[in-house]
Every structure is written in structure tokens, then in C-alpha cells.
Amino acid sequence: MASTSDIKNGLCMRYNNDIYKVVEFLHVKPGKGPAFVRTKLKSVTNGKVIDNTFPSGRKIDDVRVETHKFQYLYNEGETFHFMNQQDYSQISLEKAALDSPELMKEGEIVTIIINAEDEMPLSVEMPASVILEVTATEPGVKGNTATNATKPATVETGASVNVPLFINEGDKIKVETTKGTYQERIKE
């Protein structure tokens, strides 16, 4: 058993007959009244995100997990296939278990969190950022540049990302995986 002081991003816990992963948390100590922890929890079974507030000091039922490096191979509809980097065994997961599947390209190395009790995969964590090639974007229109003007661009995985006007087709860009936002252009 853990308490609310152990809550951190990535912690897996049992709550309401399901297993949730902490996506965001904030310890709040108001001037009046008891402290509490505000959390955003993502279900590892169906991908639903809920907001929850725990009173400070409350016991939580944490799940012991192991992390393993896997390589993303391919997807068939809603099922994504991965290969373990150590023993080359393969597993398949549903799209709901993935944080940002639209930014994952074949060959990407991801971290899969596995429940240590029953060896079931719980969720997939992407690297902090990925490098993707822009496959389609409109040319920037001169005169639209008041401040921080952006345009939509389609990357090689099919995802749409807002990029600055100077990005062209064929450019490689770094995309932050948690928010799906443009970070920088990669020079070759």
C-alpha cells in the first residue's frame, strides 16, 4: 500500500475496480482546510481519462509494474504489434492502451509497462519526442504572419501537426509526444 505522497506521473494503481495510470498530478495545500492531491487518471483497460481528488494521507492500492523496451512493428486496424528487445517475443495491444498511437512509426522503440503479478501489459509509453517527416503541407501565405503563424501539416504516420510557415514538404520535424505539438525542425 502506498499513500498520496507517493503519487507521481506513471504510477499505476487500483481504483474503482480498474487499473489506472497517473497522467498528471498536483499537490495542493490551501491556506484553509486540509491538503489534497488533484490527479488525472487514465484507465489502462479502456483508455478513458478521469479527474479525481484524493485527500492528503489517503492510502492507495498501487500496482507493482515492470518496464520493458519493445519495438513497434505494425498495426492491423485497432491492434498494434510489438517485439521485445531482449528475447524477440511478440505481443499485441489494443489502441486504447497507447498514449499517442498516431505519432508512432514502424521501428520506434517504446516502453511497455507490464503488471508484475499477472504479466499483463498495461500501457505503452512513447519517447518524449519523435522525429517525423512532413508528407503534405500548404505553402505559407505571405502577409499571414502577424505573430506565431502556423499551418497544418501531415506527417509520415498520418497525424496532423500545426507547424510554423517555413516548414515545407520533406522536412523532418521533432514532435512532442505528450501534446502532439511541433518542437523544432531537424537539420540534416
TrEMBL record:
Cellular component terms, GO, for this chain's entry?
Answer: cytosol
UniProt-listed GO biological process terms:
peptide biosynthetic process
Location within or outside the cell: Cytoplasm
- Which HAMAP family does the annotation name? EF_P
What does the record give as the function of this protein? Involved in peptide bond synthesis. Stimulates efficient translation and peptide-bond synthesis on native or reconstituted 70S ribosomes in vitro. Probably functions indirectly by altering the affinity of the ribosome for aminoacyl-tRNA, thus increasing their reactivity as acceptors for peptidyl transferase.
Q: In which pathway does it act?
A: Protein biosynthesis; polypeptide chain elongation
> What Gene Ontology molecular-function terms does this entry list?
translation elongation factor activity
Q: Which PANTHER family match?
A: ELONGATION FACTOR P, ELONGATION FACTOR P (EF-P) FAMILY PROTEIN
Provide the Translation elongation factor P/YeiP central domain boundaries: 67-122
The similarity comment for this entry is:
Belongs to the elongation factor P family.
Q: What is this protein called?
A: Elongation factor P
Pfam families recorded: EFP (PF01132), EFP_N (PF08207), Elong-fact-P_C (PF09285)
The Elongation factor P C-terminal domain extends over 130-185
Give UniProt keywords alphabetically. Cytoplasm, Elongation factor, Protein biosynthesis
* Chief site of localization: cytoplasm
Which species expresses this protein natively?
Tenacibaculum todarodis
Write down the superkingdom of origin.
Answer: Bacteria
